[in-house]
Amino acid sequence: MADSQPCVRLADEHFDDYVLGADFTAQVCGYASPVFNQPVADWPFRSIRPYRKDYGIDSAEFARYRETGAGGAIFMAWLGERAVGHVVVSRHWNNLAYVDELAVDVSARGLGVARALLDVAQFWAVKQGLPGIMLETQNNNLPACRLYERCGFRLGGIDYLRYQAIDAASHETALFWYRLFADG
Question: Which CATH code, of 3.40.50.300, 1.10.260.40, 3.40.630.30, 3.40.30.10, is assigned to 7-129?
Answer without folding.
Answer: 3.40.630.30
